[in-house]
Give the backbone structure.
Amino acid sequence: MKYKVAILGATGMVGQKFIQMLEGHPWFQVSALIASERRVGKIYSDEVDWIVSKDIPKNVTEMEMLPMDPKRIDADIVFSALPSDVARDIEARFASEGFVVASNASAFRMEDDVPLVIPEVNPDHLGLIDVQRKKRGWDGFIVTNPNCTTIVLVITLKPLLDIGLKEVNMASMQALSGAGYPGVPSLAITDNIIPFIRGEEDKVETEPLKLLGYFDGKRIRFADISVSASCHRVPVIDGHTEAVFAKFSGKVEVDEIADAFRSLKPVDGLPTSPENVIVVRDEPDRPQPRLDRNEGNGMSVVVGRIRKDGEDRVKYIAMGHNTVRGAAGASILNAELMVKEKLI
Amino acid sequence: MKYKVAILGATGMVGQKFIQMLEGHPWFQVSALIASERRVGKIYSDEVDWIVSKDIPKNVTEMEMLPMDPKRIDADIVFSALPSDVARDIEARFASEGFVVASNASAFRMEDDVPLVIPEVNPDHLGLIDVQRKKRGWDGFIVTNPNCTTIVLVITLKPLLDIGLKEVNMASMQALSGAGYPGVPSLAITDNIIPFIRGEEDKVETEPLKLLGYFDGKRIRFADISVSASCHRVPVIDGHTEAVFAKFSGKVEVDEIADAFRSLKPVDGLPTSPENVIVVRDEPDRPQPRLDRNEGNGMSVVVGRIRKDGEDRVKYIAMGHNTVRGAAGASILNAELMVKEKLI
Amino acid sequence: MKYKVAILGATGMVGQKFIQMLEGHPWFQVSALIASERRVGKIYSDEVDWIVSKDIPKNVTEMEMLPMDPKRIDADIVFSALPSDVARDIEARFASEGFVVASNASAFRMEDDVPLVIPEVNPDHLGLIDVQRKKRGWDGFIVTNPNCTTIVLVITLKPLLDIGLKEVNMASMQALSGAGYPGVPSLAITDNIIPFIRGEEDKVETEPLKLLGYFDGKRIRFADISVSASCHRVPVIDGHTEAVFAKFSGKVEVDEIADAFRSLKPVDGLPTSPENVIVVRDEPDRPQPRLDRNEGNGMSVVVGRIRKDGEDRVKYIAMGHNTVRGAAGASILNAELMVKEKLI
Amino acid sequence: MKYKVAILGATGMVGQKFIQMLEGHPWFQVSALIASERRVGKIYSDEVDWIVSKDIPKNVTEMEMLPMDPKRIDADIVFSALPSDVARDIEARFASEGFVVASNASAFRMEDDVPLVIPEVNPDHLGLIDVQRKKRGWDGFIVTNPNCTTIVLVITLKPLLDIGLKEVNMASMQALSGAGYPGVPSLAITDNIIPFIRGEEDKVETEPLKLLGYFDGKRIRFADISVSASCHRVPVIDGHTEAVFAKFSGKVEVDEIADAFRSLKPVDGLPTSPENVIVVRDEPDRPQPRLDRNEGNGMSVVVGRIRKDGEDRVKYIAMGHNTVRGAAGASILNAELMVKEKLI
């Protein structure tokens, strides 16, 4: 018996990725596609501009789209790929009516009582669920995953925390799929890069402090590091590349950093979990998004070019699949963790 | 009467750019194209894979290519677009035989007695010419310009020095033309970025210290700042984009930084000099290489997105045309400065 | 004294190109920018997503946008860059109120009494203006130019007519700018081509028959040739490339074809007219859109690779700038012709 | 027990594709990698610029490269990915020494006594093997597959032959991987197409006549159709797209053509054979190379946009994976057919 899952925002880029990743999932089965009013009652394949692969998975092709009304939805889990402006109301409505909402939207990420979770980084933050339900009086609850760029970054920062990480400067080269569909016009990005992504830098500079923070049973005490981000769009389909400059409280060595990366462990028993959370490549010119984005079925972060920069500083390149590890896969992995922890 | 100029390495990407920029130049006239042995005696248009514009300028199309032998060359100035490994011997040979060599190659850049010059940044470093000639016993001399990525960066760092600049982290997104022709294979860079450019980071981390250093009449005392670079290749034809994180010794403000950028003055009277050395754009999404690389005929550096990052830190985006301001135009501007300073 | 010109649809891609090409035009001066209702009263630079060059020409930056009401517009000529569905009503309204409408829209192109004109191909078709005004009782009139792909094709077919042209198969590789802005999503076209452009093939198969037809004083008798087109979108910013297979009624030779191309004459005295209507290149790998699209300031068609294919067949490649020769420049050239012919 | 296979030209693009497709092959096992003299004795992974996927298959990583000397090679089949100029001598040497050579090179394709085969199109042409061995006195023999562009085209022409196909005009939009590695420089193809591929059109115009010809027991009588090709390079990684204009001896209908495409049967029992040789898509904008190139693991040809063009003419788009169905997969499928036919 599989858990029934519904998808909020099923026609967008991340919604499509949810559908693709849930095809044949051993624990979850898509039971409902929830759409905005104008699409209710219509057939999924007639409405979607399917872009993430050759064909729409057969199990959803003929599904009729349902309204954003919790009473009409039969599901155990609701995955949300909504834009943040509409996510706030709708996710709250579903959570208050008893659904488990695993959200990729940014609306609730920084709320005090909402877990912002990467299973390999801060699974204990799920403890906030109790705080949330008590405070809000909801039957269900909301768990969020971070922004795509944040996820790739924070997975690499987690193992550096114990070595004395203090300051991070990060310049990203982000894929087109991060802007959704139709997203970035081809005329804007051909033979070009765009050094701006609205709202992105703010998310990348704040979310890591919560993710790497300490849950004291009541709330998250933010990590005492600083993160500065400069975010740029490049003509790459999938895969965010990040140039990270990290400063530590003391002396560090390249091997020590590489070992720390390799030591980050996956959560046992989750179907979507990669074998290696971080893959460290030794070639001088890796990771590259086109070659490495599907590592671990898109769930691994690939790191390379770890270089020392004075006694207490290191720089490296991190790359991860932004719509898999950075979006749909992040929500699914969170849901799997909640199943394992018997929260669903 | 124009000065006669010869071009070393005339068939490569930068060599072509020299020819393109020198067409119709008011002071300089191409008198010789110097090539490697296998090309000597052949006609330029038969040998070159012309890529920088629609057609080869008519004044050089039918030129016969000459050997790397100073005795066979009739010229006042030799522009060098040689690869660094061959530049060392050949540039020295021409300088020793009395030629003024304005070089884009890296071979001599960091030599104690060789000026590494950007006219708007450190024109007084030309004083090293006397030191060089005395030390080496040459009739002529060598003056170099920096690496393309360094130039764009240092033009923006110069006005920040007086404000207390201490540390720089810089992530570059570099154009394909920087790798020459054929250079980067299309299969390597389509739907991809390559986070590695051989030798580049080392140049970008050392050359600024000399450029921003103090010439005491005998030698250059390097600037007391640190620069760390992470260099990446992106699918853009021309124009290097750089995300700069700058740390200062004290408090700084965005307006102060913008004013400093705008205050950098061009050298009066040089034909290739742009009206504005640095153009500051206010839009949230500029500079962009395809839109801004031809600003000031490719000789301006365009800056945007100046953002504060705590009290003493600022980040911004800088972009410049890598084969114009960053290569051929840099050497030509140096030669123009030397003419103005009556060094030629 | 210049003619005052208004632009219908000034914020779109072709509207921007009109503005760019009219900057500094010796005969025409932009006097009004006409916009849809929601933009009326707003400032042009606030509303436009300027994409065709670095900066908006200064003469229009601060212009207030005016409504689609002929009584509110002070102009001698109205250039129309409207989408075809709205063009029908609005262009008719302006023509009926006495304006000369030079339209790039498809709405009226195939109407019996509306000239569809390329100055170098069928200037005499302007004779239809009298027919049109008589029939419709308008004070003004409408003159149209063809679809961008048609223009490039027909300019090369015109000189072949006298040699016995019978059948044409043409496969196009069309630039992104032809789809307007935002137009083609980058996710749809990166590492891809799209073998379909809505409505395009029908236009390319019918418009040439009218353009190459004979005006008998009352109407156009269509040319007796057949044209079949297969239209494809490729990741190129500007410049449509067309592979043409032409069949003749008798034997033809490559030199004869090349001579015919070179013999097509520009109309004397038109400011936007190129020196060479068709440029024939001899290299085996030309024309190429990035290298050749600005030939003749974008108004020349560049042809290459003329090859025989049996006795009576020839194939060749034609390329032209789709938003210059194929759109804004086409309307402007038509207006210039009308001024010369004293029709304005 | 698997057949041992050797690969000639293992470091190039097609050689890599052979290795990738043979990993885990149920009938064949790579026993030798044969290289040019300067690479003999070196380890494969040290020499190859691996580009076709993330990592080199483990079974060949550490293989030592062997010389082009039949006496040193232990294999049942030799797959050749050699450039044509060297293929002639070396393939003959291996065939004369008793090896079965399945070649992707063009050297022997049009020889009277050498089978040029696509299993679904002309499997009976393998009968030429006897003719070849007798005539040349070889212990082994050579079987070739066509050029990549030819294969995609001919698979779609085969079912049209019985309907009365007479004339074909074809314009191709060919992928970058067809030019090998490093192949097309990124500076040459970014924001561009190149309307020329050396030698390609000649192959595409002659090979189909042999492939679609009749084997009378002694030689191939060429098909009585004409094929004209215009070949163009586009910025697509994999997948050749072809716009086909077909003329018939009589009236044809779209449905008839579609049915004919669907009726082409795979050869039973070959491991690399796709379920559907031709997949016909109904969407107006398919096939597209990025979406459809992996159909049937890259072995299907995908067809779409079948349109009538007068009574006796039809046009359509065909697309196939050029290095799979068009190169390595073609040779492997031929070898599988020979095993099935007990020729090996």
